[in-house]
């Protein structure tokens, strides 16, 4: 076990931050094509520390996928494919992350949101009646953003439930026994691996804060 086992822990921390900041932002967001952008402006300018919550949520979204890809690469490198329960549950979580991120991209209803909503609905156009239900009609309109908002709010909690299932499957063999050997000779988690997790958390949290507070504006430009 090396530092590559740190990414799952870091991913869980950032995912929890995403849920927390998302709930705060959702309490002030208006899912309406006329007022959505203005509600984002209200959050940034008038809500106490609203700008911080919004930028943390935007940075956290990128960081979730960065850590997810590293987590998946670790699994591929160390043959986690042969632990199907953990692997399949992880892929379901990854798929939910993708859907949630695509939908969240549309919600501010800025200059690229209509294009994003059109692309998402066109991807599902081969499934009868689904696009009509998702759009609330035959084109992207006001009911679309309302449905997207509901899905964007619910799907992270669905993913969180599957995360617990993923951890349960992981501990069938033990998180310090990645190859699944049935033996008592296992690597103790404390204190060495706990120290490694804390070190990784410190590094990624510093990067997260610096990016959220100082580097988010240039990356937000189209």
From TrEMBL:
Domain Cytochrome b/b6 N-terminal region profile as annotated: residue spans: 1-179
GO terms for cellular component: membrane; mitochondrion
SUPFAM superfamilies to which the protein is assigned, alphabetical: Transmembrane di-heme cytochromes
The entry's keywords: Membrane, Mitochondrion, Transmembrane, Transmembrane helix
Sequence intervals crossing the membrane: 7-29, 55-73, 85-107, 113-136, 148-169, 200-219
GO biological process: mitochondrial electron transport, ubiquinol to cytochrome c
Protein name in the entry: Cytochrome b
Gene Ontology molecular-function annotations: oxidoreductase activity; quinol-cytochrome-c reductase activity
Coiled-coil regions listed in the entry: none
């Amino acid at each position: 076990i090396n530092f590559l086992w740190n990414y799952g822990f870091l991913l869980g921390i950032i995912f929890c931050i995403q849920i927390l900041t998302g709930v705060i932002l959702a309490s002030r967001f208006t899912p309406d094509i006329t007022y959505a952008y203005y509600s984002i402006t209200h959050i940034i300018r008038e809500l106490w520390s609203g700008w911080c919550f919004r930028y943390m949520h935007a940075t956290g979204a990128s960081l979730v996928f960065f850590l997810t890809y590293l987590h998946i690469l670790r699994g591929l490198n160390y043959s986690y494919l042969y632990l199907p329960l953990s692997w399949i549950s992880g892929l379901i979580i990854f798929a939910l992350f993708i859907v949630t991120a695509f939908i969240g991209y549309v919600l501010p209803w800025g200059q690229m949101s209509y294009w994003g909503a059109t692309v998402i609905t066109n991807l599902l156009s081969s499934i009868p009646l689904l696009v009509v239900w998702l759009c609330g009609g035959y084109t992207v309109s006001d009911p679309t953003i309302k449905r997207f908002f509901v899905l964007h709010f619910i799907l992270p909690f669905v993913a969180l439930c599957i995360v617990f299932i993923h951890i349960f499957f992981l501990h069938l063999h033990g998180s310090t026994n990645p190859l699944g050997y049935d033996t008592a000779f296992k690597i103790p988690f404390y204190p060495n691996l706990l120290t490694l997790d804390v070190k990784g958390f410190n590094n990624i949290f510093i990067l997260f804060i610096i990016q959220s507070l100082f580097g988010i504006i240039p990356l937000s430009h189209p």
